[in-house]
């Protein structure tokens, strides 16, 4: 069998981070910023597994709060002179007399004014790498002297280091070099796969070090100055100038430095030394808690210098006898020197003279170590902290923050006695933040905390001076850190804790007073939250449920995500979740709908003036124009809304409307109609006609208009013979006239697409040619009115593929390119003169690669940016982002008077499988006109919730989708979930800024997005924070309820046979050990209320939950779904583990009358069956329950709804990790003995082994995978290797079927422990028997699918994959083939054929068309066939 494995969701969270100045926009003296508001401070580059994201942190004005906007709206509706005086009680606007305290003038907490700026994350680039990241650091190379930018050094799991830099030419990362150490002798050992490389960089960027197995470091030195490079150039003839590094080497610490350096725990570079200096924390003699009587205090610290010239490595400091549980070290600043070491029970400071200062954080230190501890105060003797899993970083020279594994922030201060550190002082916890995986300091005032289980946060650390009160005699005792009073960090509410807070603390100058001051002051560090990068963390379990989007039922993936306080559920849907608010069958609209905001002008002394608009409040829509093809020649309606929210059609016009828009600043409607001839009409706000221009050529009607674009005061029409018409409105007369198009070439020039664009971002700037004649002044009053705030542009596409952007109103060519038709990655101005596009004879026929639709529209959330979106007739959609460029160095050619200082960079490309009516007869027929599907790119702006606005584009047609861009997610394309959408418009007619009018297969309806939908990810999601993690989740289809097992830590105590406690803490700073514990919860998806639960014993936790159909006498069919739970009972390390099986029934009970819930359910325990071993897995099979107990598998029947009766059993491996049944076939996964394939027969009851894998392997999940009469067994092991096993008794290698055959091995890199088998019905397959599709949720948060690929498509895609590996430049120069290859000792060649890598094949869509043709030609096929194969396979589920 062949399959495609593709990642639907990339890994979630941040495991590694680097804060640096990476992109030119972060330089303060740079040209145009990437946003029209605010400035870029620095970049944060984050990585998790194989995904790399580059963010920009931007300082921008704080947004006006929703409250203030409401105040403005309310004030706008109050007559001038009648508003309440400040301080006076303000009445509710509706006059009921309720006091609205929210609108009374507000200040921040403690009376502080709202700050002026906020710092926010903006995503710049996201890349899926063909390697697993194990470290990231910022580094400055010799080229940084020229451009002032940092470079990025990334290390990978297979001992590689890549040096990356930002390229302005491609607006993306560029690989400078890759350094591989995978062939080093240290990596040839069998256990090297268990080792994890770590990357560190010298503070002055003189070299980088990568840890290797067998206690070795790979050292990569960098050139620091041009002088070094010149010296190298004299010695060698090679092109050394382009290479910023000298040859790297491997340093064996035990042989080359000191033989005592073994078992390295952590290492770091120290600042302030002339040569690079490394501190290594290691454990010469390994020990553990059970061997402390023999070996304790086994950790040593060694500081040595790297002399890169003489290859000499002298040890300058050696400290031995540190506590055995040390796990991390960080260098102190040069002011104090030394290092701080974190241990499980203590914090240790070691200076360069080997002096040790220790701070115990609990009572275990004297019991596990002989290190002398200082005398503790009574308060410190009560302290009981566990530092395992915590991270720490310095925030100034003397203070560092320890961030505990639950997110608690503890400040620790180095107390100096003269210049030496005398003791460490820990203050009380000051804040609660995310669960940390990495902590990075950026400059003096920012702290980035990355988390792999939840959101990652950016904190501001401001140094503030405060006066010391007289009672604060000893300065060091009081905490040196405070939380900003405007901060919400230590609230338990998830949204306040991790969501961005708009009230950040403004830092004040840290001015140390000179001389003696009368008032004593001290500097404290003040923390405040800036912004957060959303993430949901690992997927521990998942289930498919049914969600209600209004009146539509859609499948929804319910995933149990996160950990600890950040735990909860994430709900994923394939399509953008929308709900229908009302059906509007009266207005029709099958050929188009336009909802317009027009207002009545006021007549004053003969002149017409429009009513002044509220500057803070956009006008609400007042009318809807809709059009249908039936009855011929079409019918257009103008409708408006009555006071009772009903739609009333005021005007019916024969003919098909092709376009409509507000005109003359919203006081009229421009209406383009086809009724025998093309008519361009100006309508009054009530729909009556003011002016009408028939599109005639000497009394002969011109061809029908196929598309149009209206942008007040300009109108563009494109006819079916590819000619265009351009009209301009004269606001003084209130009329329109034809506009002279002579600058664009001959009147008969042909154009296949075009649109207007109004730039409000200020990004579109022109550079004028001094030699060319100067332009005249702006010609129209309208143009003069708009000149200051926004510019207008005309985009036209000529048939040969030339795309031109013209200025308005003067029509001068500002941008010309031929690269868009081939979808090149970067489009720049070719500086060509206007192209010729004269009519051809015979007339030109449409081509496959013609541009069908083009639009420039803003996409974004906080600061929308212009994007160029283009659709080719072949179905290829490409999205380009507009990026500002520097003025050209060369003078412009004389044929061009100006150039647009913008380039377009491709950010997304997607191929749709679209069918056109090819023959002219088909297109001309009446039936074809009825069936014609209009594929249009329609820009929109929507505000789903107050204070949140999205600018996007909707793509209508038979592949309808939303094109959106979010601040932290970049450009995304979400399917709309409809089969076809014929017409689309935003509509605020019903007083909501989040409404849309859609004409879909269900007819015209008013829809809105589902509330609380998160659009930052690759699937629309909804988060349900629960402040606890869930290990298992199952959906009960009969009741539509969710049964989940929550997991938490409980105190564990051991008891003897008489029930007496064996050990208990004898001191307040000694605590009980902890063990895992579970509770079962019955949750309704409506409101996520827990209806009922079941508490297990304090030492019992849930392994698995399954919804199992079992025999029962309570239903007519004799079967019913029950909830089966398998548990483990932990009895300490001296007694064997036990387990139990529970059978629950979900029963309906009478709801509490006080609650407004209509139906209520409870969990009813029917049966508890104790087991001698842990019940690690359960599943249902043919009405029986299959459960594992230790080394056995039991098949049981549920008898009389009260007990389980065993009918068959089988001795299997060591520990069962997975059971999956289909019909009477059972797949068993084992922690040691790999996978078994078993059949169950009922007469007599018996389990028969069909085949098993002869090789040992730790399986985390095993599934049956079947399609088109083929069957395979899919397994995943703890290294993340996905294998396809075949059961084939006819193959001689299988020994008559006893052995399962390994057909394919594919390295998925991360294990998955939850998988779901779903049905897939492809268009070409058998509709009766679906194919299986496997959805897998990984421990790194990624969601992947395994989809069956038929033989012919697989051969094509496999050849294409080989071409892509060889011919495409991959990010960081990684090898995709090696990334997925599995080392196998039993076969001569890797079993790599059989599973396609979806991440690699996805790069084919992004290639320019020329490269696509080149790559497919080499494998004997064409791009259309390959893209069709690909489009048929991709998709979430």
Topology:
Blueprint: E1 3-9, E2 16-20, E3 39-48, E4 51-61, H1 66-77, E5 117-128, E6 133-139, H2 144-147, E7 151-156, E8 160-167, E9 172-180, E10 199-201, E11 207-212, E12 216-221, H3 226-235, E13 249-252, H4 253-257, E14 264-270, E15 277-283, E16 299-305, E17 315-322, E18 326-331, E19 339-343, E20 346-350, E21 356-360, H5 365-368, H6 378-381, E22 391-394, E23 399-403, E24 408-417, E25 420-426, E26 431-432, E27 438-442, E28 446-450, E29 456-467, E30 481-483, H7 494-498, E31 521-533, E32 539-549, E33 552-561, E34 568-572, E35 578-583, E36 592-596, E37 601-604, E38 607-610, E39 623-628, E40 635-641, E41 647-654, E42 656-663, E43 668-675, E44 677-683, E45 689-694, E46 696-697, E47 700-701, E48 705-711, E49 714-719, E50 724-730, E51 735-738, E52 753-759, E53 766-768, H8 781-786, E54 791-797, E55 803-807, E56 813-817, E57 826-827, E58 851-859, E59 865-872, E60 876-884, E61 898-900, E62 902-911, H9 920-924, H10 926-931, E63 937-945, E64 948-955, E65 961-966, E66 970-975, E67 981-986, E68 995-1000, E69 1003-1009, E70 1021-1025, ...
Parallel strand pairs: 1-94, 30-31
Antiparallel strand pairs: 1-93, 2-3, 3-4, 4-5, 6-7, 7-8, 8-9, 10-11, 11-12, 12-13, 14-15, 15-16, 16-17, 18-19, 19-20, 20-21, 22-23, 23-24, 24-25, 24-26, 27-28, 28-29, 29-31, 32-33, 33-34, 34-70, 35-69, 36-39, 37-38, 39-40, 40-41, 42-43, 43-44, 44-45, 46-47, 48-49, 49-50, 50-51, 52-54, 53-61, ...
């Amino acid at each position: 069998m062949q399959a495609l494995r593709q990642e639907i969701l990339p890994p979630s969270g941040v495991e590694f981070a680097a804060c640096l100045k990476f992109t030119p926009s972060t330089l303060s003296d740079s040209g145009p910023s990437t946003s029209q508001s605010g400035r870029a401070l620095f970049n944060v580059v984050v990585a998790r597994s194989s995904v790399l994201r580059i963010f920009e942190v931007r300082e921008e004005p704080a947004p006006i709060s929703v409250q203030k906007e409401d105040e403005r709206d309310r004030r706008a509706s109050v007559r001038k002179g009648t508003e309440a005086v400040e301080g006076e009680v303000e009445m509710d606007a509706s006059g009921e007399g309720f006091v609205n305290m929210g609108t009374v003038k507000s200040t921040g907490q403690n009376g502080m004014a709202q700050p002026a700026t906020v710092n926010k994350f903006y995503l710049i680039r996201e890349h899926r790498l063909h390697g697993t990241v194990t470290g990231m650091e910022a580094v400055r190379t010799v080229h940084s002297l020229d451009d002032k930018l940092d470079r990025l050094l990334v290390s990978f799991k297979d001992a590689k280091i890549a040096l990356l830099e930002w390229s302005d030419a491609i607006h993306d990362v560029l690989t400078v070099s890759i350094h591989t150490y995978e062939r080093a002798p240290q990596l040839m050992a069998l256990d090297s796969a268990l080792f994890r490389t770590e990357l560190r960089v010298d503070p002055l960027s003189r070299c980088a070090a990568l840890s290797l197995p067998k206690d070795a470091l790979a050292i990569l030195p960098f050139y620091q100055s041009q002088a070094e490079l010149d010296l190298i150039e004299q010695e060698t003839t090679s092109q050394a100038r382009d290479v910023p590094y000298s040859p790297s080497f491997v340093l064996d610490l035990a042989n080359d430095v000191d033989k005592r350096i073994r078992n390295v725990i952590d290492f770091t570079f120290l600042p302030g030394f002339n040569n690079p200096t490394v501190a290594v924390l290691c454990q010469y003699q390994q020990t553990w808690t059970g061997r402390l009587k023999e070996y304790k205090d086994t950790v040593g610290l060694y500081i040595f210098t790297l002399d890169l010239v003489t290859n000499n490595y002298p040890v300058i400091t050696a400290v031995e006898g540190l506590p055995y549980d040390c796990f991390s070290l960080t260098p102190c600043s040069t002011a104090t020197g030394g290092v701080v070491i974190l241990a499980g029970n203590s914090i240790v400071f070691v200076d360069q003279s080997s002096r040790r200062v220790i701070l115990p954080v609990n009572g275990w230190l004297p019991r596990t170590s002989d290190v002398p501890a200082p005398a503790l105060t009574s308060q410190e003797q009560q302290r009981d902290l566990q530092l395992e899993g915590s991270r720490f970083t310095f925030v100034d020279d003397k203070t560092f923050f320890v961030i505990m594994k639950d997110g608690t922030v503890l400040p620790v201060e180095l107390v100096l006695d003269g210049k030496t550190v005398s003791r460490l002082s820990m203050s009380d916890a000051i804040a609660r933040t995310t669960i940390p995986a990495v902590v990075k300091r950026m400059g003096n005032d920012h702290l980035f905390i990355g988390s792999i289980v939840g959101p990652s946060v950016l904190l501001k650390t401001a140094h503030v001076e405060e006066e010391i009160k007289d009672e604060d005699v000893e300065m060091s005792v009081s905490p040196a850190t405070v939380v900003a009073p405007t901060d919400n960090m230590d609230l338990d509410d998830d949204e306040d804790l991790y969501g961005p807070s708009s009230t950040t603390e403004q830092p004040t100058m840290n001015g140390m007073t000179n001389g003696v001051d009368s008032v004593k002051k001290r500097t404290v560090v003040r923390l405040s939250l800036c912004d957060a990068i959303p993430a949901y963390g690992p997927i521990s379990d998942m289930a498919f449920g049914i969600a209600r989007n209004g009146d539509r039922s859609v499948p929804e993936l319910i995933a149990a995500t996160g950990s600890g306080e950040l735990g909860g559920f994430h709900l994923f849907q394939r399509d953008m979740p929308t709900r229908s608010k009302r059906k509007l069958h009266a207005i029709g609209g099958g050929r188009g709908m336009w909802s317009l905001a027009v207002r009545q002008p006021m007549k004053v002394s003969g002149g017409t003036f429009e009513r002044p608009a509220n500057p803070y409040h956009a006008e609400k829509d007042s009318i809807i124009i809709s059009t249908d093809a039936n009855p011929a020649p079409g019918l257009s309606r103008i409708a408006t809304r009555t006071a009772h929210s009903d739609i009333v059609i005021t005007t019916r016009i024969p003919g098909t409307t092709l376009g409509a828009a507000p005109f003359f600043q919203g006081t009229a409607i421009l209406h383009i109609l086809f009724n025998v001839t093309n008519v361009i009409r100006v309508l009054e706000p009530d729909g009556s006609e003011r002016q009408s221009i028939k599109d005639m050529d000497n009394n002969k009607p011109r061809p029908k208009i196929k598309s149009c674009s209206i942008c007040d005061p300009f109108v563009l029409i494109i006819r079916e013979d590819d000619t265009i018409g351009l009209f301009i409105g004269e606001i003084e007369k209130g009329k329109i006239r034809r506009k002279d198009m002579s600058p664009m070439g001959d009147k008969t020039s042909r154009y296949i697409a075009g649109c207007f664009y109004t730039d409000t971002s200020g990004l579109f700037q022109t550079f004028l040619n001094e030699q060319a004649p100067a332009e005249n002044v702006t010609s129209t009053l309208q143009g003069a009115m708009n000149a200051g705030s926004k510019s207008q542009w005309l985009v036209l596409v000529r048939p040969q593929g030339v795309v031109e952007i013209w200025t308005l109103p003067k029509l001068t060519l500002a941008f010309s390119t031929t690269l868009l038709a081939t979808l090149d990655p970067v489009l720049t101005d070719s500086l060509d003169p206007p192209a010729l596009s004269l009519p051809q004879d015979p007339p030109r026929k449409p081509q496959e690669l013609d541009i069908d639709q083009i639009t420039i529209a803003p996409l974004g959330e906080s600061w929308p940016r212009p994007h160029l979106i283009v659709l080719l007739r072949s179905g290829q959609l490409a999205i380009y982002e507009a990026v500002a460029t520097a003025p050209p160095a060369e003078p412009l050619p004389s044929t061009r008077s100006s150039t647009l200082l913008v380039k377009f960079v491709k950010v997304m490309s997607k191929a749709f499988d679209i069918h056109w009516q090819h023959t002219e007869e088909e297109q001309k027929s009446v039936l074809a006109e009825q069936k014609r599907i209009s594929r249009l790119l329609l820009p929109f702006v929507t505000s789903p919730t107050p204070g949140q606005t999205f600018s996007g584009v909707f793509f209508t047609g038979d592949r309808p989708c939303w094109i959106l861009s979010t601040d932290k997610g970049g450009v995304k394309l979400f399917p709309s979930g409809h089969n076809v959408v014929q017409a689309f418009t935003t509509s605020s007619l019903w007083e909501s800024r989040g409404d849309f009018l859609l004409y879909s297969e269900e007819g015209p309806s008013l829809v809105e997005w589902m509330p609380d939908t998160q659009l930052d990810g690759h699937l629309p999601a909804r988060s349900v924070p629960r402040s606890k993690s869930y290990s298992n989740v199952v959906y009960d289809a009969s009741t539509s309820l969710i049964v989940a097992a929550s997991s938490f830590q409980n105190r564990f105590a051991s008891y003897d046979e008489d029930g007496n406690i064996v050990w208990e803490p004898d001191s307040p700073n000694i605590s009980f050990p902890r063990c895992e514990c579970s509770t079962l919860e019955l949750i309704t998806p409506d409101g996520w209320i827990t209806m009922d639960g079941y508490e297990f014993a304090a030492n019992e936790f849930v392994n698995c939950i399954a919804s199992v159909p079992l025999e029962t006498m309570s239903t007519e069919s004799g079967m019913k779904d029950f909830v089966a739970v398998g548990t483990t009972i932990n009895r300490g390390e001296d007694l064997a583990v036990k387990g139990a099986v529970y059978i629950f029934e979900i029963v309906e009970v009478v709801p509490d009358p006080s609650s407004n819930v209509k139906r209520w359910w409870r969990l009813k325990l029917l049966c508890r069956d104790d087991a001698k071993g842990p019940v690690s897995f359960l599943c249902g099979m043919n009405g029986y329950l299959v459960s594992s107990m230790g080394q056995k598998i039991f098949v049981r029947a549920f008898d009389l709804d009260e007990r389980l009766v065993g009918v068959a059993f089988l001795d299997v491996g060591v520990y069962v990790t997975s059971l999956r049944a289909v019909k009477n076939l059972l797949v068993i996964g084992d922690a040691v003995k790999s996978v078994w394939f078993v059949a169950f027969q009922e007469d007599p009851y018996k389990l028969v082994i069909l085949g098993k894998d002869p090789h040992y392997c730790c399986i985390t999940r095993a599934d049956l995978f079947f399609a088109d009469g083929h069957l395979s067994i899919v397994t995943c092991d703890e290294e993340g290797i996905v294998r396809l096993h075949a059961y084939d008794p006819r193959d001689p290698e299988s020994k008559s079927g006893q052995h399962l055959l390994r057909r394919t091995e594919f390295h998925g890199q991360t294990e998955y422990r939850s998988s779901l088998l779903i049905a897939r019905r492809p268009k070409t397959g058998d509709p009766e028997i679906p194919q299986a599709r496997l959805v897998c949720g990984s421990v790194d948060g990624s969601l992947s699918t395994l989809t069956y690929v038929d033989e012919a498509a697989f051969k094509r895609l496999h050849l294409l994959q080989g071409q892509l590996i060889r011919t495409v430049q991959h990010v960081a120069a990684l090898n995709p083939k090696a990334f997925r290859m599995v080392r196998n000792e039993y076969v001569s060649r890797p079993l790599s054929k059989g599973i396609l890598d979806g991440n690699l094949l996805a790069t084919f869509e992004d290639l320019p068309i020329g490269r696509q043709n080149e790559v497919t030609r080499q494998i004997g096929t064409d791009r259309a066939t390959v893209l069709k194969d690909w489009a048929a396979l991709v998709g979430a589920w």
